[in-house]
Specification:
Structural class: alpha/beta
Shape: globular
Helix content: 25-40%
Largest sheet: 9 strands, mixed
Number of strands: 26
């Protein structure tokens, strides 16, 4: 019997090939996990499997350029929460954090747990399971081990600077002193070796609310933030000379300093251009024009004058963050509430003691009102859209989603505060139930202001009240222009991070929906920006449908995409993998099929048996 020419034939799809060219109705044939043929009327008789795709969009698998799936991938290598949304390639090792050096446990010091817990808001019990799954001790073995697990999506890796400092200096020294010349040389050597092994580059971090989680370091930031400019310049020269990428976050508390550090991209100043991928191009609610400053500066740096190559990662959805009481990445920005978050997750008594401490109360009130009232510079800067703090503290922007009183569910905290105020002024019929009346009677009288309201909520309910706030990209206003801007790089999802606080696994689909609302031409551009463009930027051989390319393919139902509401599709569900609840996204019906290396892994609303049982994806080594 003559062998058939193809393993799979996908027929009559509207194909967006990732180049930005107009879509065309085509058939695509796959063999041995690669694209074997494209054209019209390819013979069905030559294929073992035929997928009828008329009315569907076909495109290369999508890239998630910013994840923290380093931890999950060794517990559940199929990574189903990203695959179901059409993602077939993920980048890990971001924000200076990762697992590529192994467990790095030394005595009582457990750096992975210490660094990830508060930065990515992942409970220590979950992180410890991840640490126990680590079986390698060096960067080469880390990349190699992906071939030995049933990997779903492809994985590209940054060398994380915090973990590099820990590897060379130890955790304690990495946050308390500068490296010696010998230690700096060793860091250069390890980084250079990683570049030879195929790492995408190096990641660093400058966000002021990224703290360690284990005693005695809970008032210290993660190790990368203790590096001098000289250390950064020297290490990034290794990345620069190999044409790799610097992934970073801005030094928000000192924006002129942040802009100064971004100048490291300049080939004019430093001899060779350094590709730089930075967070993030979003439209902050309290500083809507801030992204214009960064993008304008990027235009200058990327000009012939400076010969830079910096792009800011863009999020295709509204930046919605949930908080359990005050436990949230939002409130690490305030010195007072960061002290509450530093307490162990289950330390209710410890948080209550702080909340009743007069010194803490005064500090909290100062933080809560900073820039929001009074005749002072901070208030003026906030009114001009240049606030010192980006954290949301306006009760009307905070919406209950897990309220301690049933009548509060779906309301803003401001609506409850206003009703409480009327109740305390004698309008007792404002209480809509006995439960609400009991709750109102427990508040101090009189309720002085919204700071007092929040203090009582934290004392009374601890983590037992849950709410969300849109900190950026509210109503997705102005998001499409950011996604299409020449100095942005769409594909930022932050998948795998902040497991109870954020769910952007589906942000790439939201980007496609925004493009769909504009035109098919814009969809074609967006597909390019989510596939071949980031692949080229990071030096990866994915993101295309060229003959011979690895067959990572997504089929999308455009009508389901048109009707889908990402904000109505979040679920807060218990996940056995973590033995903990996680906030996840759902886009069921939007993604019809996902194939990785030619193998269907998601089909008709469910995973196939191949995902998580066969090694399909691979460690991507930068070229």
């Amino acid at each position: 019997m003559t062998a058939l020419a193809w393993d799979t034939l996908i027929r009559n799809a509207l194909v967006f090939d990732g180049t930005g060219s107009p879509p065309r109705q085509q058939d695509i044939a796959l063999r041995d996990g690669r694209v074997a043929a494209r054209g019209h009327g390819l013979p069905v008789s030559q294929a073992t499997r035929v997928i009828e795709a008329e009315g569907k969009w076909l495109m290369p698998g999508l890239l998630d350029i910013h994840t923290h799936l380093d931890l999950e991938v060794d517990l559940e290598p199929g990574l189903p929460e990203v695959v179901r949304h059409g993602t077939t390639t993920v980048l890990v090792g971001n924000c200076s954090l990762g697992t590529c050096f192994g467990q790095q446990v030394e005595g009582e010091q457990n750096p992975i747990v210490d660094c990830f817990t508060r930065v990515e808001n992942i409970p220590k019990s979950v992180l410890q399971k991840c640490v126990e799954a680590v079986s390698w001790n060096d960067t080469g073995a880390y990349l190699d081990h992906f071939a030995d697990i049933p990997l779903g999506p492809n994985v590209g890796v940054f060398l994380p600077h915090s973990m590099l400092r820990v590897e060379v200096m130890g955790l304690q020294d990495s946050i308390s002193r500068d490296p010696t010349e010998a230690e700096l040389a060793q860091m250069e050597s390890l980084l250079g070796r990683a570049m030879e092994q195929g790492y995408l580059g190096m990641s660093t971090d400058g966000l002021p609310f990224h703290y360690l989680a284990n005693e005695p370091h809970t008032d210290q930031r993660i190790p990368t933030q203790f590096a001098s400019f000289g250390e950064m310049k020297r290490l990034l020269k290794v990345v620069r000379n190999r044409g790799r990428v610097w992934q970073t976050t801005p030094i928000l508390e000192n924006r002129p300093k942040a802009l100064f550090y971004f100048m490291l991209t300049s080939g004019r100043l430093f001899g060779k251009t350094l590709k730089t991928s930075a967070l993030s191009a979003v439209r902050f609610v309290v500083a809507p024009q801030a992204s214009r400053v960064f993008l304008g500066f990027a235009s200058l740096l990327n000009s012939r004058l400076f010969k830079g190559n910096i792009h800011f990662q863009a999020l295709g959805s509204n930046f919605r963050i949930w908080s359990d009481g005050i436990i949230s990445p939002l409130y690490e920005e305030l010195e007072s509430t960061s002290k509450l978050i530093a307490k162990e997750y289950d330390d209710v008594e410890g948080r209550l003691a702080l909340l009743n401490d007069p010194v803490f109360i005064a500090e909290f009130r100062r933080d809560w009102h900073h820039g929001r009232r009074g005749r002072n510079l901070a208030h003026l800067k906030a009114r001009l859209g240049m606030p010192d703090l980006l954290v949301v503290r306006e009760l009307d922007r905070m919406i209950f989603d897990g309220a301690p009183v049933a009548q509060w569910e779906g309301e803003s905290l401001q609506a409850v505060y206003d009703r409480l105020d009327r109740y305390q002024r004698g309008y007792t019929d404002n209480a809509r139930s006995d439960a609400e009346r009991d709750a109102f009677d427990a508040f101090p009288r009189p309720i002085v202001d919204d700071a007092e309201f929040m203090l009582h909520m934290m004392r009374r309910y601890d983590k037992g009240f849950r709410f969300w706030a849109d900190v950026a990209n509210k109503d997705k206003e102005g998001v499409l222009p950011l996604l299409l801007h020449r100095n942005t790089l769409p594909g930022f999802n932050d998948s795998g991070a902040h497991i109870t606080n954020m769910a952007f696994f589906d942000a790439n689909l939201s980007s496609l929906k925004l493009a769909q609302q504009d035109s098919l031409s814009t969809v074609s551009t967006m597909v390019r920006r989510l596939t071949s463009e980031p692949a080229a930027f990071f030096g990866l051989d994915v993101g295309t449908l060229e003959i011979g390319a690895q067959a990572d393919i997504v089929l999308i139902d455009p009508e389901a995409l048109r009707q889908w509401d990402d904000n109505a599709s979040r679920q807060f569900t218990h996940r056995e993998l973590f033995e903990h609840k996680q906030l996840v996204s759902r886009s069921d019906g939007v993604v019809s099929q996902v194939l990785i290396r030619g193998e269907p892994v998601w089909r008709d609303g469910d995973f196939t048996g191949a995902l998580g049982t066969r090694t399909l994806g691979r460690a991507l080594r930068a070229a």
